[in-house]
Amino acid sequence: MTNAVDDDTSTLSDLHARYLVTKAAVHAAKALTSPGRKPEQRLETLMECHGSVLAARGPGSPLPFGQFRDALSGDLAQLLPAGVEPVDLKGLAVVDRDGQVTENAFDLDFEQRMLLHTLHKLHRATGVAGVREFREEVEQETVYQALSKQGIQSIYENGREDLIRTPAGHTDELAELRLPPSVADFYQEIPYGSTHQGWWYACPICYWPMRLVLRKSAGLLTGSARCWHTPHAEMGASYLFRPTTDGSAAALLPESRPDRPVGRESVLFPDLDVIPEPMPVDKHKALVRGVWRYTTVPGIPELALRDQLHQRGLAAELWPSLDAYDLRVTIPGIDKPFKVDVKDYTSATTLGSLIHAQEGDRGGAEWLVVPDYRAGQIPLLSEVCARYGMKAITASAFGEFVCARAGVKWA
Predict the structure, then answer these.
(1) Helix, strand or coil, per DSSP, at residue 103
(2) Whole-prediction pTM
(3) Domain residue spans in the chain?
């Protein structure tokens, strides 16, 4: 594995430089794309972010403000100090053609922050990272700590499952969820990039508000609705619509989508036959993006695996011992349970570095499971997992494996 995080100071410095540059670029992109900001407010934020990048680059590496602006919609690696390996930042744009913050930029910012936060807690990043840099990551920990506060497994499971199954909805429905007030506060107004004429549409896979954009082609204005999570959009959560101007809801038409997989991957593949219905923005809320992305999204294969294994007569428990790891599968006649950690990272390099920093899974999981659409990450993850007695595998491959061990059919 390349660029694994270890105790080498220069490696930690490179990681911190990539983090600072990504953080500043994403913050600047939000200032550019968020509605309602005055031009002088946008400029002030951009100048602050430019200053942060200059600080990361050091006095011997100047960067004109115009080049900083251009890199936001071009190649983020241009902002890095000389000699720092770009890794995932190479060719990455922070603002896309529709004027939105790209998913990859958001994910890389969050994933780098989580890695540095872990290193900081392990006392392996002293001097390059401070607690205040991880305020947004702390909100993710706040969710888990609030759910586990009472120390009752059923309360934790119920709350975690509600966050996965209902990441958005009517305020009356959300009030019925089994969540403590501190977690319920993470449901906020429907994101501005997910509304059109006062309406929003839930992704048929994760049920979070889809991204809505308008584009003009050959003088004709058309609308696009796609899940903010690119793999979901590529699976089929992608639609077109004719924009309205009178406040009425637009009807979605499915875009062309790949054929449904056959064989083992067909078991966990979602049902996309039902077209999302419009829902009013009024009296509806959705989880903040970070909690949706790193609780709801990876939780989908967690629940799907548990449910499918149950249907085949296998014992599968989610989040045992208040989330020591994600899934425990036991098979009659086999004394040792299968302990699973499920991850959905955009950056396999960052995930591999996190495993390396923790010297395996902190909860004792021996299997690292990723969604089927992350199959391309398996070679890199297998290399780092092998160092710590772990195996990396896709969700469907794991389901097929344990079913074969139990003598039952997966697909």
Answers:
(1) helix
(2) 0.89
(3) 9-109, 191-280, 289-406
